Amino acid sequence: MENHVVLTACIAEAQALRFTPAGLPAIELRLEHSSSQQEAGQQREVKAAVKAVAFGAMAERLAKQPMGSLWRFTGFLATPRNGKHAVFHVQDIQQD
User: Fold this and answer.
1) For the chain, first and last CA: distance in Å?
2) Which of 11, 56, 62, 75 could share a disulfide with 90, CB 3.0–4.6 Å?
3) Residue ranges of the domains in the chain?
4) For the segment 67-95, what is each residue's pLDDT rounded down to a tens digit?
5) What are the beta bridge partners of residue 50?
6) Is 84 helix (H, G, I), strand (E, B) or coil?
7) How big, in percent rounded to 5, are the helix, strand and coil portions of the chain?
8) If you write DSSP's letter for every residue of 39-77 in order, what string do you get?
C-alpha cells in the first residue's frame, strides 16, 4: 500500500522546537495551501490548512524557516493514537 503525499504550501504556524521523551527534535506546524484544480470538468479554487509534524534533522531545519515561506513538502499521513484527524508527517522539503 502507498501513503505518499506531496503538497506545495506555506508555513502558516510553527510551534517551538521540542524534544520527544527519546530526545528526538520535533516540531508541529500548520501548512496552508491555495491553488486552482480541475474537478468534474470545472476549474475550482482550493484552499486547505493542514496540521503537520516533523522529527529529527527535518524538524531542526523547519524550525529555522520563516513564516509564510513556500515549500514543496513530501511525507505521509498518519492519525495519532488519541487523535481523530490525520497529520501530515514531513520527510523532505524543497524550495518552491
Assistant:
1) 28
2) 75
3) 5-95
4) 999 999 999 999 988 888 999 999 999 99
5) 31
6) coil
7) 10, 60, 30
8) ETTEEEEEEEEEEEEEEHHHHHHHHTSPTT-EEEEEEEE
Cα 5 from Cα 12, distance rounded (Å): 19
Q: Which three cell numbers stand for residue 94?
A: 524543497
> What digits encode the pLDDT tens for the residues 24-69?
999 999 999 999 999 999 999 999 999 999 999 999 999 999 999 9
CATH 1.20.1200.10 fits 5-95, yes or no: no
Amino acid identity for residue 3 in this structure: N
Torsion of CA 31, 68, 66, 55, to 10 degrees: 10
